Amino acid sequence: MRTALSITRIIVGLLFIFSGLVKANDPLGLSYKMQEFFDLWGMMQFNKYTLVMSIVMNALEITAGVSLLIGWRIRFFSWLLLMMIIFFTFLTGYAYLSGKFKNCGCFGDCLPITPLVSFLKDVLLLLLIGFIFLKRNQIKQAFSERTSVIIIGLTTLFSFGLQWYTLTRLPILDCLPFKKGNNIPKAMLPPEGSRPDSFAILFVYEKGGKKYEFDAGNLPADLDTYKFVERTDKLVRKGNAEPPLKGFNLTGANGGDSAQVVLKLPYAILLFCEEMSKPVDSWKDEFAEVYAEATRKNIPAWLVTTQPASVPGAIRNTAFNNIPVFSCDYTAIRTAARTNPCLYLLQNGTVLGKWPRSKFEEAAAFIESLK
After folding, report:
1. Which of 89, 254, 275, 359 has its Cα between 20 and 30 A from that of 73?
2. Parts of the chain belonging to CATH 3.40.30.10
3. Omega before 243 within 30 of 0, i.e. cis
4. Cβ–Cβ contacts within 10 Å for residue 132, how many?
């Protein structure tokens, strides 16, 4: 029994640490997933708290996993793990049964899993944690109290420090369609070998107050005695031809989409600003260097935002006050830019470089080095 308990502790502890680390690599991703749930439940007032909730939850997963491995304060953490897994099982069960989510975000964007797999995973974890909870009095602390406190303290600092780093300097492991080296036009196409949705054309007729559906090959011989109602397309097989990147449209002042034009240019610079709430003064000088260097290299640059009307006033007193502006769907911008703002250098639609606002000086130097 002790062996089974030890193995269970190791499995659960490592899984929670792994889950927390994967999401801590991109806490904004989990924050956006939480907003999907709140939007669906009509609880949008909680959306402004989702980033804090994401950061705390990721840190709790990592810390709880380490605490379970070393057996520190096991009574408290066994209760915490039980409450967390009950909550997670509810969420993944809802995601699966509602059919409204393709990915619950349990392992972030780096390891997307279906709601069914995620739900079954949580059911298994619920059983394992339930076993740990029942046998919690048999778990002994592996280290002295002082050593354990130091380990947990360092784990907590690391958990929050990692997330601060990724929030200010972009995820360490980029698993999104806009990652460096990816070709955006290719990401906008269905994957190779994928199959589209398959539909059957059905004709609806009425006779004697009842409605009947027929396909083109099985129309009744006495069709003239039926009254035609409508033609419908019925999904008979769900495909998997969804492109990794959807909704990437760059809409200019004339209302047209210029995405394909920009993606075919030898070089192009896109400055993604989801909205202009961040003070431009905190990054205007650094981007001014980028913009000046791009001008010297004859590289066109655009600012991409969800709120184009607010841009002129925000950049009025900057060296780039004449930069053209594109509007773009907020989901696409959130996928591209995990910092606000975020700078891209494209080469024929391929992401040659991407920088958070804290590294705009590096971007200017990189552009200067281009031949």
Report:
1. 89
2. 259-368
3. no
4. 23
User: What's the token pair of residue 100?
Assistant: 């409204």
At 189-200, the pLDDT tens digits run 887 777 777 778
Nearest to 155 by CA among 64, 80, 247: 64
* Cα gap 12→65, rounded to integer Å: 7
Q: What is the DSSP track for 71-132?
A: TTTHHHHHHHHHHHHHHHHHHHHHHHHH---S---TTTTTS---HHHHHHHHHHHHHHHHHH
pLDDT at 216: 79
pLDDT (mean) for 30-36: 91
Q: What is the pLDDT of residues 277-320, one digit of tens each?
A: 778 988 999 999 999 999 999 999 999 999 999 999 999 989 99
Residue 209 exposed, middle or buried by CB count within 10 Å (0-12, 13-18, 19+): exposed
pLDDT tens for residues 8-23?
999 999 999 999 999 9
Q: Which amino acid belongs to residue 339?
A: T
Residue 239 confidence class, pLDDT cut points 50, 70, 90 = low
**CATH code at 259-368:** 3.40.30.10
Checking DSSP bridges between strand 301-305 and strand 325-327, what pairing results, if any?
parallel
pLDDT confidence of 209, banded at 50, 70, 90?
confident
Q: What is the DSSP string of 286-312?
A: HHHHHHHHHHHTT--EEEEES-GGGHH
- Contacts of 191-196 with C-beta under 8 Å, sequence gap 24+, read 191/240, 191/241, 191/243, 191/244, 194/239, 194/240, 194/241, 194/242, 195/237, 195/239, 195/240, 195/241, 196/239, 196/241
Compute the mean pLDDT over every residue in the chain, rounded to the nearest whole number: 91
CA angle 15, 21, 27 (to 5 degrees): 130
What is residue 233's DSSP assignment?
E
Contact predicate 26/338, CB 8 Å:
yes
pLDDT of residue 255: 87
21 closest CA partner among 33, 32, 13: 13
